Amino acid sequence: MHIPASSNMALDVAPVVLLVTVLVAAPLAYLLLVVVVAGKKEKPSSAAAPTPRDDGRRLPLPPSPPGIPLLGHLHLLGALPHRALASLARAHGPVLLLRLGRVPTVVVSSAAAAEEVMRARDLAFASRPAIAMAESLLYGRDVAFAPYGEYWRQARRVSVVHLLSARRVGSFRRVREQEATALAARASTGAGGAAVDLSELLTEYANAVVSRAAFGDESARGLFDEFQSGRRQRKVFTDFQKLIGTVPVGELLPWLGWVDAITGLEGKIRRTFEALDGLLEKVIDDHRRRPRGEGDGDGRDFVDVLLDVHKNDKEVGIQLATNEIKAIILDMFAAGTDTTTTAMEWAMAELVTHPRAMRRAQDEVRAAAAGSTGVNEDHVAQLDYLKAVVKETLRLHAPLPLLVPREPAADAEILGYHVPARTRVLINAWAIGRDPAIWERAEEFVPERFLGGTAAASVDFRGQHFELLPFGAGRRMCPGLRFAEASAEMALASLLYHFDWEAAGGQGSREGTPTPSLDMTEVNGLAVHIKSGLPLLAKPWVP
Questions:
Q1: How many domains does the chain have?
Q2: CATH number of the domain that 224 lies in?
Q3: Binding site membership: which residues?
Q4: Where are the transmembrane segments (predicted)?
Q5: C-alpha dihedral sign at 256, 257, 260, 263
Q6: Binding site membership for heme: which residues?
Q7: Could you tell me where the DSSP H helices lie in 216-321?
């Protein structure tokens, strides 16, 4: 589970909004084009005084490509900002200054620069900028987007100690194993030769695991049943996940803020929030009325735990209001569904297009579970190659390639460059994961690089190695790492044990042997998915 680490939400402006923006601003765009053609390129802003060095000299601002008036560098981002920003970093360096509309932004694209932000100067960069969508949908009281301060410290302690500790994550083992079995059963519907949309099945799995962990079995069944009401409620959470990965035009371009109203975005935000609030209020009321289990057993879900913290605030030392409980629960959904789904989706896509890696992963899990009717988490603990597959997938396909933006409250420094106070700082985890200065065969899927005896064998994604940062690092590191890791590994192990997999159609070759090909085109959102989904053929394996 990844607490939404994406500054994609600050960059993913819906195409229809961009179209309207271009149309209504056409005269202005023409004037801007004239300015650019005439060579009157905007110089990087230097309104903030550079930070003085100990020797009295002033630090320079980071390098910046030419921008255009009012829009700044928005036009350079394209449909896949993480790729565009990586390209800009290759041209201008690992610390880059951009202006995204009205928002000054520093982009970090190297492990050394990321380490300075998240370790050497972690406290200076520990805060978050105000994000309009988080304010609108998360009560302004969640963990992921909260500014650094007392509330954030308390809310994060609730998440780390009470919700997502190793003991608590372990208590949901039954949920993961049951849902992985259900996932395999749904995948078997394609055993007759019809393709299954594995992306859709993985989404159902991730939603089910998070729903049961957050609300408990009874409430999750009641909310997300197969009847019309359940479908409506699933759509509310789907809309929430899509919206949290979108930015209102007015956040970057205040002079075009009215576009959000005429395109219906403001209305959709309001309706989605009201529906979510009603659902969460009902769940919390139901939990208050029924007796709750004690300790860390399977009977206690996230709402149970948060209500206990709320009730015993003096003993626990943390005060949580009802809206703060709702915000933390929504963090879990935003973090634990779309992003976890994406990681599993890319892992299966890479394995299908690399048959030798697929065979090795299948042989490993089938040997570990020999004599069993399926896979459990005791088997998963033995799967070193599968864990290497997950690492390699996260290196190549960080679900949230741009980590949640940070913001220094005071003037700061990165690799000798001045970073003015209140500048957004984006860390391009995707670019760092593919940096050829760090990784041999950086663009290739090679899980073996993480096995024993290799230079990268000790590299992990737990915040100590800045060349691999899918969950971030430092104070603002994702607290849901264990939950995400356990959920993804259990699902992948089950799919690899029960089925042999092929792409649904087309022939291609990615490693010298003919293999059905997949369209690996990316699409941006809260997380970066495979645009065409994952249509696969599942052939049951019989021991």
A1: 1
A2: 1.10.630.10
A3: 478
A4: 16-38
A5: negative
A6: 478
A7: 217-223, 228-244, 249-252, 259-262, 265-289, 302-311, 313-316
